[in-house]
Write a structure and sequence with these properties.
This protein has about 450 residues and is mainly beta. It is about 15% helix and about 35% strand. The radius of gyration is 30 Å and the shape is elongated.
């Protein structure tokens, strides 16, 4: 049994603890609107049990998130390029095209018979081969088209996801040969040799005839002369009849030796009838870029671009210059500079099922915004990606970031509280997109912001 003196002593200890608890919650109430203590959250595992009163989980009202259009992105001189189109049930129609120069495999080319005489040059066929490195979507038939570019473009110039070049408007694909079901899952044969999967498009012989006719004109003397005359190809699709969940974006390895235009021809002079081949290659000397188009008509994206409050339910991030998300922390400025943030975690659960052909990105990035609107990686990114986070967690179906340095710098006034942009990694060489649960999502897991702090 406790004596009266011991009871008084215990009561004083309890009063001191209660006062400390009240002070902490007063700071939380004044400085972070709607903060609450939540047992079992991740932050509880990073401090000893006796210090758990310092762990606060912000109410969802302390985070605002919504979707905005992405800026155009640099898309030139990547090894991989996207080609094709598909109709996403959430993101609508996306289309990707390729602009690329082709270059002769040899210079000072003469496409006439070595023997001469009355021999003629006969073109048997011409094919565009593109090394097929993967796909995103469903492998349905697509209608491929190839056009001749009629304006100069250059290796040392910058091109973006919304860049275009004019063409002569004449489809170079042989009539009836453009509808193809891509097969990136099986090896193929090129000229009898086993090769990687390729997209093989038969071109009309008129292009080859035009090239053969340039013999002796100076246009085949070297690649500078050839590119000045034949400026390049626009490789695209026309799949306007696609329905939801039809089509795919194809990953093309343009620098693979299989990516080329091959012309097959022969001479009529007796003894020279064997078919010959001449390649026009896509290589590191070829100017090339991808162009992407997005149509959000009638989609949740279109609705949220018009009404940012819809971000409370879901936000969206898409590659290829599509959409990104803005995340604001409106109450950070109200926090006391006597609070040190030990851990600040942004948890972004995503919506995805393994049967869905549209998988999320493998990694997302956060960029802070300065007073002039310029973007930079947060200071936490310098600690290394493993600490900073942003990788897709397939088990918990979430992306998780630690942005403690960023939050501390906001509290110290070192960086403005202008919020963060959530963007994709490898944005012009992948086709991924993700739907992230908002703070008021009907799904069980919701966007949240977890603060672990120490009071000075």
């Amino acid at each position: 049994m406790l004596t009266e003196g011991k009871m008084d002593k215990k009561n004083k200890l309890l009063m001191r603890k209660a006062n400390r608890l009240s002070a902490l919650f007063l700071v939380a109430i004044l400085l972070i609107a709607g903060c609450r203590k939540e047992e079992g959250d991740l932050g509880l595992q990073v401090q000893p049990q006796e210090d758990q009163l310092n762990i606060m989980v912000s109410d969802t009202s302390t985070v605002l998130a919504y979707t905005i259009k992405e800026d155009s992105l640099r898309s030139d001189e990547f090894m991989l390029a996207l080609l094709g189109s598909y109709v996403d049930p959430v993101f609508g129609r996306t289309k990707a095209s390729i602009y690329s120069q082709i270059r002769m495999e040899a210079e000072s080319v003469d496409f006439t018979s070595a023997t001469g005489g009355t021999s003629e040059t006969i073109v048997d066929s011409m094919y565009l081969y593109l090394d097929l490195n993967g796909f995103y979507g469903n492998l349905d038939a697509q209608n491929f088209e190839v056009y001749r570019v009629n304006e100069d473009f250059h290796l040392d110039s910058n091109y973006y996801s919304n860049s275009t070049l004019t063409t002569d408007g004449i489809d170079l694909v042989e009539a009836g040969a453009g509808t193809i079901v891509p097969d990136p899952l099986n090896f193929t044969y090129i000229e009898g040799l086993l090769a990687n999967p390729v997209l093989k498009i038969k071109l009309d012989n008129s292009l080859a005839d035009d090239i053969v006719a340039q013999t002796g004109s100076g246009n085949l003397v070297d690649n500078d002369a050839f590119v000045s005359w034949f400026k390049g190809l626009h490789i695209t699709v026309d799949d306007s009849g696609q329905s939801t969940d039809e089509g795919a974006l194809l990953y093309m390895d343009l620098l693979n030796a299989n990516s080329r235009v091959s012309m097959y021809y022969r001479f009529t002079f007796p003894g020279e009838e064997d078919t010959l081949r001449f390649n026009f290659n896509i290589n590191t000397s070829s100017a090339r870029f991808s162009q992407t188009e997005h149509d959000y008509t009638g989609t949740p994206i279109e609705a949220q671009l018009a009404d940012s409050s819809l971000g409370n339910e879901s936000i969206f991030v898409q590659t290829m210059g599509g959409v990104k998300s803005k995340i604001d922390f409106p109450h950070l400025d109200a926090m006391s500079d006597s609070v040190v943030i030990n851990k600040a975690e942004l948890v972004l659960p995503y919506d995805y099922f393994t049967s869905d052909p549209y998988s999320p990105q493998s990694q997302l990035y956060l960029l802070r915004v300065d007073s002039s609107g310029q973007t930079f990686f947060t200071e936490d990114f310098g600690e290394g990606e493993t600490i900073h986070g942003g990788f897709r967690d397939n088990t918990n179906k979430e992306f998780r970031f630690n942005i403690a340095k960023y939050v501390n710098n906001v509290l110290k006034g070192l960086v403005p509280n202008n919020g963060l942009y959530l963007i994709s990694t490898s944005s012009m060489i992948t086709a991924n997109r993700v739907v992230i649960n908002g703070k008021n999502s009907t799904n069980r897991n919701k966007l949240k912001f977890i603060l672990t702090y120490t009071e000075l």
